[in-house]
Amino acid sequence: MSLALMLCASAHAQHSHGRRNTIELQFDTVPTHDEILAQAPEDLMLRFNEYVRLVKLTLKANDITPIDIGFHFSLDYSKVFIQNLPPLEKADYYTAEWAALNADNVIVYGYFCFSFGPDARRPTSIIDAREYAPNPFQTP
């Protein structure tokens, strides 16, 4: 979990956030990484610059609680994937993780975080605060 928090906290621009590999695959997400929405999204969208097979798409509240979004792997290649979401409960933030195979069967994977609601905060600010908070169980 700490690794996921560190990776999410170190994410950058929307075209490179969450990419944890060395091949060039450009992508966009909706919601965008670290976006604050007025209300819960009804779906997630991933758009790639080349045809891929989306083999994994998961959603977790606060990087802990998995949400059943009904994702099913398909053998079909596409550049755009849209996943409908169930109604989402209020959480500090959500993290979507994905994995895709390109035409050469090289796996590419990443993530993006978002939050929603009138008192929502930017996900990376929450994650950063947790990382730098003193650990009461750690001995000096």
Q: Can you describe what's shown?
A:
The chain has one domain (2-132): Immunoglobulin-like (Sandwich). Helices cover 13% and strands 39% of the residues. With 140 residues, it is mainly beta.
Task: Name the shape in a single word.
Answer: globular
Q: Helical element count?
A: 2
Main beta sheet strand tally, sense and closure: 7 strands, mixed
Structure summary, number of beta strands: 7
> H/E element string?
HEEEEEEEH
Structural class designation: mainly beta
Give the gist of this structure:
With 140 residues, this protein is mainly beta. It is 13% helix and 39% strand.
Question: What are the defining features of this structure?
Answer:
disordered N terminus, 140 residues, Immunoglobulin-like, seven-stranded mixed sheet, 2 helices, single chain, mainly beta
Write the layout of secondary structure elements.
Layout: H1 2-9, E1 27-30, E2 35-37, E3 43-61, E4 65-67, E5 78-84, E6 94-101, E7 107-116, H2 123-132
Parallel strand pairs: 2-7
Antiparallel strand pairs: 1-3, 3-4, 3-5, 3-6, 6-7
